[in-house]
Design goal:
With 121 residues, this protein is mainly β. Helices cover 0% and strands 50% of the residues. Strands 2, 4, 5, 6, 9, 10 and 11 form a seven-stranded mixed beta sheet that branches. A four-stranded antiparallel beta sheet has the order 1-3-8-7, with no helix packed on it. Strand 4 and strand 5 form a beta hairpin. It is globular.
Length: 121
């Protein structure tokens, strides 16, 4: 079993930056593929970014490419989502996700509780 706890959400002005953190426990972190999803009000949950177990391979949704960076610290069992040039359309609940695989699947096995990010215009 894997437990994921997100933190770092909040209110930020458009153009600003925010870094989300996700602390994992319950399994050797370096064996997990990690990622972030988000869900805006009235919309389906969508993929944001993912990292393979080592962090050397990352992938991003087109909507955040060049603005968001996913990074992981295997020694601290934590994955981060560094968000910059934030836009109002980035407003959503952001969820950390994990899979016991080399790469994250489209339906991760483990989820955090979510953290709210609100970007004001």
């Amino acid at each position: 079993q894997v437990q994921l706890v997100e933190s770092g959400g909040g209110l930020v002005q458009a153009g600003g930056s925010l870094t989300l953190s996700c602390a994992a426990s319950g399994r050797t972190f370096s064996t997990l593929a990690m990622g972030w999803f988000r869900q805006a009000p009235g919309k389906e949950r969508q993929f944001v970014a993912a990292s393979n177990w080592s962090g050397r391979s990352t992938v991003y949704a087109d909507s955040v490419k060049g603005r968001f960076t996913i990074a992981r610290d295997n020694a601290e069992s934590t994955v981060y989502l560094q968000m910059s040039s934030l836009k109002p359309e980035d407003t959503a609940v952001y969820y950390c996700a994990a899979d016991r695989k080399v790469v994250l699947t489209t339906s991760p096995e483990y989820w955090g509780q979510g953290t709210q990010v609100t970007v004001s215009s």
